Amino acid sequence: MNTMIYYSFSLLFLSVLVLVLGMIKPKWILIWVENPGRLPITMISMVLFMIFAVMFGEGNKQLKQEKEKEQATQQITKPANEVPDLH
Predict the structure, then answer these.
(1) 3-state secondary structure string, 22-47?
(2) How far apart, in Å, are the Cα atoms of 52 and each of 26, 31, 41, 62?
(3) pTM above 0.85, yes or no
(4) What is the pLDDT of residues 70-84, one digit of tens each?
């Protein structure tokens, strides 16, 4: 599997973690802000989720291209006079 897909799932986990912890206690995430609200936590989590979606989509696109390239090379190396197996 593609490493970009693995990293995207890590980012998804981080996004959910930031959202859950930030909704419970926003100070845990925004430690530098004196009186943090929940709206910035939601925005941060949404941005992380959007980055996850883009990374996951690009990873799947790369994986599909690799599979197509592999199938193309297998078709090239297959002899033309070979009789297909009908079983």
Answers:
(1) HHHCHHHCCCCCCCCCHHHHHHHHHH
(2) 22, 24, 16, 15
(3) no
(4) 888 877 766 656 666
What length is written for the chain?
87
Compute the chain's Rg from CA coordinates.
22
Tokens in use for 65? 């291209």
pLDDT band at 19 (very low <50, low <70, confident <90, very high): very high
CB 52 within 8 A of CB 15: yes
| Contact (Cβ atoms closer than 8 angstroms) between residue 19 and residue 41 | yes
- Assign 3-class secondary structure to the chain: CCHHHHHHHHHHHHHHHHHHHHHHCHHHCCCCCCCCCHHHHHHHHHHHHHHHHHHHHHHHHHHHHHHHHHHHHHHHHCCCCCCCCCC
